[in-house]
Structure formats: structure tokens, C-alpha cells
Give the backbone structure.
Amino acid sequence: PPIPRRSPAVRPPNVAVGLALSGDAAFRGDPSRWNPEQLLVAAASSCQLLSFLAVCARARIDVVAYTDEAHGLMPEADPPMRLTRIELNPVITLADTDRTRPTSER
């Protein structure tokens, strides 16, 4: 079983829901909890998503769907253990791409 002191929870100020954290299962962590490497990959993916949505909103582009299969690479054969690459693979669906968008003058 996981060691309790390796399973902290974090909750930033003014955020209602905290996150239960643990090390990776390879380090005797709890696989049902987020680990730091997953959080880093999720942060990169969500940063790209939110930036993209902000740019689309300013350009009046309607985003119908956005999914991302994000992956982090952490090669064991290249010590020290660390994430060496984060790959983001968004799939984006836009609405009515043939219609004329309003210009900024309107």
C-alpha cells in the first residue's frame, strides 16, 4: 500500500476543490491520485486549450469541440529521471467555417 506521507492533498487559496496527490506507482505512490508528472502535462495541455479558446473568442471563431491526447516522455534510461518532452495532440472542431466572420470595425 502507499505510504500516507507520500499522498498529500493541495488546494490553492480561493479554489473550492483540492487535488489528492501522490508519487507515481513506480515510486510506491497511489495510482488513483494525480502525480506531479501528470499535473505538468495537464498544465501544458490546459494552457494551450485556454490560450486557443481566448484567441478564437477574440476572432469570433466558434469552437464546437476540443480534445487533446497529451503525453509526457520520461525516459528511465537517461538519468536523472525527468520529463524530457511533452506532446500535445489537439483535435479541434470549428462551427460554420465557411461563413464570413465580422470584422473588428463592427
Notes: The radius of gyration is 19 Å. The longest strand covers residues 63-68.
